[in-house]
Amino acid sequence: MSDPTIESLLQENRHFPPPSDFAQQARIASFAQYQELCQEAVTDPEGFWGRLARTELHWFSPWEQVLQWDPPQAKWFVGGKLNLSYNCLDRHLETSCRTKPALIWEGEPGDTRTLTYEELHQRVCQMANALQELGVKKGDRVGIYMPMIPEAVMAMLACARIGAPHTVVFGGFSAEALKDRLNDAGARVVITADGGWRKDAIVPLKSQVDLALQADQVPSVAHVLVVRRTGEAIRMQEERDVWWHEIQQRVSDDCAAEEMDSEDLLFILYTSGTTGKPKGVVHTTAGYNLYTHITTQWIFDLREDDIYWCTADVGWITGHSYLVYGPLSNGATVFMYEGAPRPSAPGCFWDLIEKHKITIFYTAPTAIRAFIKMGDHLPQARDLSSLRLLGTVGEPINPEAWIWYHRVIGGERCPIVDTWWQTETGGIMISALPGAISTKPGSASLPFPGIQADVVDAQGLPVADHQGGYLVVRQPWPGMMRTVYNDPERFRRSYWEHLQTGDGHPLYFAGDGAHRDAEGYFWIMGRVDDVISVAGHRLGTMEIESALVSHPAVAEAAVVGRPDALKGEVIIAYVVLDNQHQPQENLQKELMQHVVQEIGALARPAEIRWTETLPKTRSGKIMRRLLRTLAAGEEIAGDTSTLEDRTVLDRLREGA
Ligand code: WT7
């Protein structure tokens, strides 16, 4: 508990009631209304979710049963038929949405595009037809490796339209990481672009795809569909590679949405876990559609005329749920930006808010901390009065950053929703409803109606208020992940068997530590496992360790996170070289580059520390807790009696 952010969180007691003018017009307009919804969901969960599914979504045919729960296997809306792309597009064509912008986009060089619901529908149909022409059938997996351009959204919706599960791989991942994910998913087609703009440079996506696919390393891939974005010269491999703008000329802009079963696989999204390679988190159609739809509507308080901006990349779950599916299912106008703040345009986010009259803005604490550092003069030089609601996601937000966000960006008038959730949960689980729930800086506040979140000890028993424990969920919810792709055993092991629950009641284990205050507010303390979060990007220490060990000079490696004021955590790697190699500065650089090549720039260690041995228990387990303490520059307290060799610590201290 020596972490200063945790200390300040424990002392935090400011609270901000919903502004009354905001509450008056809000979707969920009072705490009493929130409580009623919670009550309805507790007394009759199936009635609650069934009512929402009926009123909020379009169905080709109704379900027979709302929930089949055979822990940890859940089936929602059993037997129902629907299509997510239909719910995001077609149904809006019969309303005033038809001519409303679905997507307003701006590229980093300043080019802009606006697509109405009608236009987006046509493009999605064309891309769906293009995929079919390339041989993609219902059930075939499609890889998407794209910059933040409208075609990324079209690609996802086109896949959903024809029932081809997509797996979006973040454009910052390396060719090596892309290859692993495409292979695990068995992708048949990859959709990519020649490149994209990010921080004044071109990210060469197509050449990374070429590297990933070279020498038949991904045998399942038959075609690559390439969108022209930057116009850079790229290599097109005959027969395999097809330009989107060429195929677009000849395909129809009409394509019926496939009738999908509620539980048909919608997408796979890879995320880091405690052990081994990334997990393919599986989400299915109906539950995910409903859960992202209703959380977007209530938490972001969507109204007809909102212009909603979520800064997340489509390569992450936030991009899936709250840039694409949730907002479009609600018929909202989504703003999408290709780039990121950069030295040549440090105030670009505020320019964009002013220019496009953004009303709802959803970003990450790490971005907010970077904005604070860039200076108040940048947002203060812009008119941000269009904003009415702010959101944050990805890691705990320190109260200082929260207050700054509230004051400087929100003009002290916008509520802030701090939303806790995960790739696995599909949608937001704990958050304020901005017209109903008072917020406290640093707390994600209360569970969404129907979510039975709790804090328990290692035996699965509830802990007292203010006492730390494991964050768990007691009941299934529609947006929950269904399995780990190709590895149902890992699903069970990673999420459902962590805690010894005496009464045998299944608990979903989130991997986060948390505590609750006397008013039931949740305070998330960060991961309790070997997952670290660098600038809000989730990375497994084991993944980075195996990348290091795959370098010929490395005998052994241990990776830990060190608290960082800007990024939340940075990566510190302790490396044992084999006896052929000597510690050298060059080698440090080479190893950092090696990790970038194996995983991507997001996994680059901030520091590599040489060591002759790693602290281990007698059974050979690396004691990362000790390394974490050392990396943070703190003295080791607590029990070290399980350490196999006590002199290791002194040597590590000297080394640092
Ligand atoms: C982990 C999930 C869900 C979208 C982005 C990350 C941390 C997420 C919060 C929050 C404190 C948070 C947790 C969680 N996290 N939101 N509001 N407050 N921590 O998705 O990559 O699946 O990571 O992010 O540690 O377990 P993800």
Q: Terminal Cα separation, in Å? A: 23 Å
Question: Helix/strand/pairing class, anyone?
Answer: alpha/beta
What percent of residues adopt helix (DSSP H or I)? 25-40%
* Unreliable runs: none
User: Going across the major beta sheet, what is the strand order?
Assistant: 5-4-17-16-18-19-20
What does this structure look like?
With 656 residues, the chain is α/β, with parallel strands linked by helices. Helix content is 32%, strand content 22%. It is built from 21 helices and 30 strands. Helix 6 (117-133) crosses helix 7. The two termini are 23 Å apart. 52% of the residues are buried. The structure holds 5'-O-[(S)-butoxy(hydroxy)phosphoryl]adenosine. Residues 271, 317-318, 393-396, 418-423, 444, 510-512, 524, 526-527, 538 line the site of 5'-O-[(S)-butoxy(hydroxy)phosphoryl]adenosine (WT7).
Observed structural traits:
656 residues; five-stranded parallel beta sheet; 22% strand; alpha/beta; 21 helices; globular; seven-stranded mixed beta sheet; 30 strands; binds 5'-O-[(S)-butoxy(hydroxy)phosphoryl]adenosine
